[in-house]
Amino acid sequence: MFECMPLSTLRHRLLVLGGLFLLLLLLLFGAGAYLESRSALREVQAHNLETLATRLAADVDDRVRTRQVLLEQAAASLQLAPPQLERQGAALVARFRDLKGMFNNVLLYDRNGKLIADYPGLSGRLGADVSTQDYFRSTRDTLRPQVSEPVRLGGEPNRAVIVFTAPVFSAEGQLAGVLGGSLDLDAPEFFGELKNIAIGQGGFLTIHTLRSRLAILHADAGSVMQAPVSVDPLLQRAFKGIQGPAGVGVSRGVPALLVYQRLRNVPWLLGVEQPLHEAMQPARLLGRNYLLLGLGVLLLLLPLAWWGMYRLLRPLPRLQAQLARWRHEPYAAVPVLGCREMQDIAHEVAAAVRRRADCERQLAARDALFDTLSEESPMGVLVVDAQARLQSLNPASMRLAGLPAAEIGNWIGRHWLDEIHPDSLPQVAGQWQQLLATGSGFELLCRLQHRNGCQAMVELRFSELAGSGGERRFLGLISDVSAREEARGKLQAERERSMLLLGSISDVVVLTNRMDEIEYVNPPALALFGVPASDVLGRLLGVFLNLVCPESGQAVALRDIERDAAGKPLALDLLSRDMRVQPVLLTLSVLTGNSPLQGCKVVTLRPDSERQHRELLQRRAASHDGLTGLRNRRGFLAALGEVLDDNRVHYQPHVLAIIDLDHFKAVNDSAGHEGGDLLLQDVARIMQRQVRSNDIVARLGGDEFAILLCHCELEVAERTLRELLQAIDAHIVYLGERVFRISASIGVTMILPQDERAQPVLSRADDGCYQAKQRGRNCLVLHAGAL
Q1: Which residues make Cβ contacts (< 8 Å) with residue 545, sequence separation at least 6?
Q2: Where is the GGDEF domain (predicted)?
Q3: Taking the CB of the first residue and of the last residue of the chain, which one, N or C, has fewer CB atoms within 10 A?
């Protein structure tokens, strides 16, 4: 059906493609030339318009200046006093009838703005008062000639004039009156001549005043004496005093070239406008000529292109004939086609045909090998289509299902899922649907419906065959894993029993591999490490187990224990993650034999309670007083140092008190050291009752005590210590038949933010205690330097 179509042959297609390319090239060239010519033409037209605007502005300036000079000369020739000017006004104005060619009317005003004469005279105009008009006031105030804004006449609202004024001076130089000349905006003397200036066919001249922005000359009569409704950007810049080159704007609703010039002798803005389509008309003619020229060139080149295509494609029929021959004789020689490109194509096609023939032979050999392997393989091999129908299977597949191999032909075309056990069918069917949807293979364990009634556990692998053409085919491999799964079940049961046994042990048990990586930890070990099992398994044991020697404090490595003390319990210190020291008994054992666990290590940890209790007693004896149970000087200084370190970070109020017992020596001398010891124990109990549980009470030595009231304001501390004074003073000691009473002297100081060492704080409290002794004992003194 393609033989009769115009583009059925390569020659036609190349010809059309070449023609389109040539046409596009010509269009691009023509468009570029047209745009460049249009841009150049626009610049030339803009330059011409600017030149014209400059000349017209100079001409209008000359016309205005001529009228100003004539009016100034006429005013200067009068030199009359104000009374004379009023009496001779009509005769004087008649002298200036020559000005009628320059102005529509000549007017003479007295110095108060009253019209006293005009030429030619109009009835009813004499006596008119213009003293409120801007042009008269400016002339009177500045004594200089003026040109007015357009003024509408009161009796004739459709008539507007421009008034030129010049001051009239007396012989003494005083203002006697004002001589004026008016120009009607509709009169032919001035504005009519400018309106008749032709700028092309549709261009025109405009004049606007700069102060009121009213149009005094415009091609549209309705725009005269009107401000622009929508100010063009070029006109807006011109009003602001910015004069630029000609530009494109909108005039009377159509695009136009615009240029504006300010006049030198009068505050007017002259504009020259020319429709853009008129200015660019030569460019359109040039574009049309370019298009006709391009079409002519295209028509001339098409026959030449046809002849060239015919010459270039002559070898194609010979190549077509050779391709038909290679279909039956793939190793035939390559003919000479007379074109290097065609010759290269022929060689490449011949090589591809020969490679295809080689691949077909290799594929046939592989199919034969696959059939042989499939027949002899102990693994079941299935090939199924997308509808789960069997296309081929080997004898091993029949044996795995308990079927005779001779019935293979009866199973071709049946669904392979029919042989899956009902217990495994939902899982297998779900994986099969996912394989159809995504094309990704799957592997799983399942059970088959064995004809002999035994449990046939198999490992099933399925994947999609690549290069199967339009029909999707899938390869399935089936392996019998019944014996392996049975052994795995027994091993798993044994492992679970072992894990249950290890989990019931209260000691820490850790199993590592040969690389010291954790394989198993029991619950006590997880509690010791303080992390979940997922963060422990597979990581080095040394990350969680930091061991040091109790005597030297040196770190102990597991490899040193394995080398020197494997199987022996060792007394070590375990550093927890928060740097706490815990005495433990560690035993490391290395598994031997030919089992898979050969070289693995078992580490057990048991808390060393006896050593831990012994060390606790030693630490308490080092920091507490043996008589009273309070902290001794060493323990108190350690607690005070911790408070000072904390205050460097964030200050809190703390109070330190030094307490010295009064008259204790008399008790000690009278009742002996045994009586003195009993009294000290009573005082220690009184102090512990009077202070809070978080306060620190210490016996510094002899009958000297110290109390550190933590996080306590000074007022609260003072009240607590005075109550302590009363309690000690009220205490009575009975020793045999004798009765003793004592009191106490207390020195108190606040711990300041700048305190860094314990000695200055203790010195301040000692000074307060000494002052209490000097004041008669049984009192409390606050140190003045720490209040």
Answers
A1: 510, 558, 574, 603
A2: 652-785
A3: N
pLDDT, one tens digit per residue, over 373-402 is: 666 677 778 888 888 888 888 887 777 777
- Topology alike, domains 377-480 and 506-615: yes
Task: Decide: 310 and 288 in contact? Cβ < 8 Å.
Answer: no
- For 377-480, give the CATH class: alpha beta
pLDDT in tens, 65-81: 888 888 888 888 888 88
Strand pairing category for 743-750 and 780-782: parallel
Residue 552 has pLDDT above 70, yes or no: no
- Quickly list DSSP for 235-271: HHHHHTT-----EEEEETTEEEEEEEEE-SSSSEEEE
Q: What is the DSSP string of 461-516?
A: EEEEPTT-TTS-EEEEEEEE-HHHHHHHHHHHHHHHHHHHHHHT-SSEEEEE-TTS
Architecture per CATH, domain 77-188, reads as: 2-Layer Sandwich (3.30)
The residues spanned by each domain of the chain are 77-188, 318-363, 377-480, 506-615, 624-786
- How far is the C-alpha of 388 from the C-alpha of 411, rounded, in Å? 12
Q: How many CA atoms lie within 13 A of 737 on its CB side?
A: 0
Contact 448, 458 (CB under 8 A): yes
Return the CATH fold of 624-786.
Alpha-Beta Plaits (3.30.70)
567 touches 588 (CB < 8 A): yes
Tell me the backbone φ, ψ of residue 458, rounded to 5 degrees: -130, 160
* Rounded CA separation 312/293 (Å): 28
The whole-angstrom separation of Cα 265 and Cα 71 is 14
- Global pTM? 0.40
Per-residue pLDDT tens for 583-626? 777 888 887 766 666 668 888 877 766 665 565 555 665 667 87
Query: What are residue 162's phi and psi, to 5 degrees?
Result: -110, 125
CATH number for the region 506-615 comes to 3.30.450.20
Place of tokens 């070239």: 257
Count helices and strands in the chain by DSSP H and E runs:
21, 29
Q: What is the distance between the alpha carbons of residues 531 and 87, in angstroms, rounded to a whole number? A: 124
